[in-house]
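Hey L., structure's done. Input below.
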Amino acid sequence: MRRSYQYRKLERHSRKPAELLLVPMIDIFTVLVTFLLMTAVFSRTVILQLNLPAPQTEFKEPPPGLQLEVMVRKDQLMVADRNTGPLHAVPNTSTGYDFDGLTEYLKFVKTKFPEKTEASILLEPDTAYDTLVQVMDHVRVFEAGEGINTVQAELFPDISIGDAPAGAAPGSAPLAAAPATTPVAVAAAAPRPADGRGARP
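Output:
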């Protein structure tokens, strides 16, 4: 009995650890990769070159003798000349009025008329007061520079406020005010009496 126990103990110490057989695994992966390559569907990627139009950076040239007006519509901000009509429309964005777009065009106008300081802001009925304040701020000045070097440059600080003409379609000339008419009194001529024959002279 003692000899049998010593024999098992000696056999346990002399037993080698099991080895990992890599050759069958390599064979399995080789067959698997071959199968996947044969059954795979390869899609061809086609690259199309699109020639997109360049962004519109050119503005309409303001006419001589500019009388600058900024009309606040419900769907856009319209820059116009009082004498010739609309110059540039700034449509609303998904967040509201595009005040930055308005500033960019007013900066362009300022380069053409550096001495001009007057501008009129024309409002539609029920325009919010906050909208009026923001339009006035962007018409008066703009910020130049970045960070601590930001300064305010002047645009058109002399602002007057009025009512926007009603019924003007986007891109059309503003409606001119109807000329004032002075009532004129017209005296009716009194009828002459008929003569004896019943006929008038």
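The longest strand covers residues 85-91. The chain is about 30% helix and 20% strand.

-- N.
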